[in-house]
Structures are given as structure tokens and as C-alpha cells.
User: Fold Chitin-binding type-2 domain-containing protein from Aromia moschata.
Amino acid sequence: MAKLATQTRAHLLTAPSSCTSAGVYEASNCNQYYECVYVMWWYELVLQTCSSGEAFDSSTGTCVTDSTCSS
Assistant:
């Protein structure tokens, strides 16, 4: 199981249009997620992609092996 570099499991929600604190959020593709990261003086949503053969698991906030994810 691959771990995300930064994660806040309390914030596992659908991605907002903007963010105000660190966290990870589901994206529309099963192998992607949004990470809210602090950049200079504000937070920014960054689209991240899991490794090949992995999918984002919103219950753990990590990328996990998933053979059914083909996005």
C-alpha cells in the first residue's frame, strides 16, 4: 500500500473549488485524488495520480492496489 506524503484523514471529502487546510480529496477518476497543499501564503488544490494498478481509497487516504480501476 502506497502512502501519501501528506494526509489529513479527517478531510477526505469531494474536492472543493478551493481549500483552506491540508488534506486529500477524491477526484472523479478512481486513480486520482486532490491534495490541498500550502504554497507560499495560501493553500492550493493539486491533482495527484496513483501509480499504475492502484486506485485512491478515500477510507484510508492512500493509493491501494486495485485491478478494477482502469482510469
Q: What stands out?
A: Residues 3-12 have pLDDT under 50 and may be disordered.
